[in-house]
Write a structure and sequence with these properties.
Layout lengths: L2 E9 L4 E7 L13 H8 L12 H8 L1
């Protein structure tokens, strides 16, 4: 991350946003490397909802 808690006001029927963060891309993977099917079958990840811990096996795969 490069900056957090950037003030921002947005609201619609389904979503309210009060702050943003600015991030920097560190690495890019080919589109077929970490598909949702692969994340489910090989790493046990069924949803991506935010920053959380990741399995060690996925952490190591991301480092390669």
């Amino acid at each position: 991350m490069t900056k957090t808690d950037i003030p921002f006001e947005y609201q619609d029927r389904d979503l309210t946003i009060k702050a943003l963060m600015k991030i920097r891309l560190q690495k890019r993977y080919t589109p077929d490397r970490f598909t949702f099917d692969i994340l489910k079958s090989e790493y046990g990840i069924y949803a991506v909802r935010g920053s959380r811990g990741i399995p060690n096996s996925l952490r190591e795969a991301l480092k390669k």
